[in-house]
Amino acid sequence: MVYYDITQEQLIQMVTEAVLLEIKKAGSNVVPTGISVRHIHLTREHVDYFFGRNYQLTPRKQLSQPGQFACEETLDLIGRKGSIKKVRILGPERNKSQVEVSITDARMLGIEAVLRSSGDVEGTPGITLRGPEGLLVLNEGVIVADRHIHMTSADARRFGVKDGQRVRVQVEGQKPGIMDGVVIRVSDRYRLDFHVDTDDGNAFMLSQGQLVTILK
Amino acid sequence: MVYYDITQEQLIQMVTEAVLLEIKKAGSNVVPTGISVRHIHLTREHVDYFFGRNYQLTPRKQLSQPGQFACEETLDLIGRKGSIKKVRILGPERNKSQVEVSITDARMLGIEAVLRSSGDVEGTPGITLRGPEGLLVLNEGVIVADRHIHMTSADARRFGVKDGQRVRVQVEGQKPGIMDGVVIRVSDRYRLDFHVDTDDGNAFMLSQGQLVTILK
């Protein structure tokens, strides 16, 4: 048996690419699912605040979207009613800090659940972040991410959909059904992936990478 | 202004009955939603074990199904990975003890999520319960309750469905969609109610009592 010197990450990448290639061949409307657990995006300024000036976040795992990565670093979320420890930071830095939680998390924290697309944080609830050496109060930035599908413009042509369009997605399995109002997000920097949070994932008993169908 | 001497519970009961009456009048396929938070059903023997011989559970709130009530008494759930404190016991006693959790809860506890109808606990995972004065290891009994609609035989005739049939339920709102595979449960002891757990409730952003539609 021959062992090649590749990392588990490279292997996952290769398998993912192979699956995506098969999906495209089939000419079907299927899309792999990515379930997002609660996480934090920080500005450069807030990385400095928590970890020191010019600190570089430590990549732990590449995510499905090119250039995005989960970091070794975590922070605690502190709400009025409860707190959640060790919530992972995702890199790279963004121009606004943002905390993405499920509605289940929001209730546990005692924070209003506001459904938004990533980046659209104006007027959303705030939260307190606790790092290894300090607290930071965000005045806004807590969102429940609206279900969405990342795709390239080539994917969009193939599916016959446009950026910003809302579609229905069919899920099979033990808890089957249809998620409606799923936003299409098109950019050639994206890779095809249906992003839901853990509430959606658990309600539909989805597993990471499970194939679902865009309904026309 | 005249104040009548009724409890909040009686008021809720009256409003519920009035809503159900309106629903029936309309001749439509709408059903009110009841979201079940994690809870525990105990046998008479296990009530004795935790609280003392012939102890009577203390009703705190009547539930939508006639004769069912949430109790003042709670127990802690202890799993391999985590524990959940103060989980409410529902009365009256049953002939098998059963713990109903969401998939989110099951993950937090480190227990396999097994989808079952209430009462069907054979071969399901076990759990440790912690009471005020002791621990009890259940060898089985942890289920994720399958989505279902309680109704009377008159409701079933009106909707044109049968006991055990699976239907689709349409949800409107900010996170709309369709739950498929929803089990119809018919008994003249029931009252019309669509029962989901907190994962379904949060994924579809449902509120307690929200009206949903049975699709034919």
Automatic annotation (TrEMBL), chains A, B:
One of its GO terms (biological process) is 1,2-propanediol catabolic process. GO terms for molecular function: acyltransferase activity, transferring groups other than amino-acyl groups; metal ion binding. This is Phosphate propanoyltransferase. Pathway: Polyol metabolism; 1,2-propanediol degradation. It comes from the Bacteria. Belongs to the PduL family. The keyword Transferase applies. Keywords: Acyltransferase, Metal-binding, Transferase, Zinc. Coiled coil: none annotated. InterPro entries: PTAC. It catalyses: propanoyl-CoA + phosphate = propanoyl phosphate + CoA. Involved in 1,2-propanediol (1,2-PD) degradation by catalyzing the conversion of propanoyl-CoA to propanoyl-phosphate. It comes from Anaeromicropila populeti. Pfam families: PTAC. It is an enzyme of class 2 (transferase).
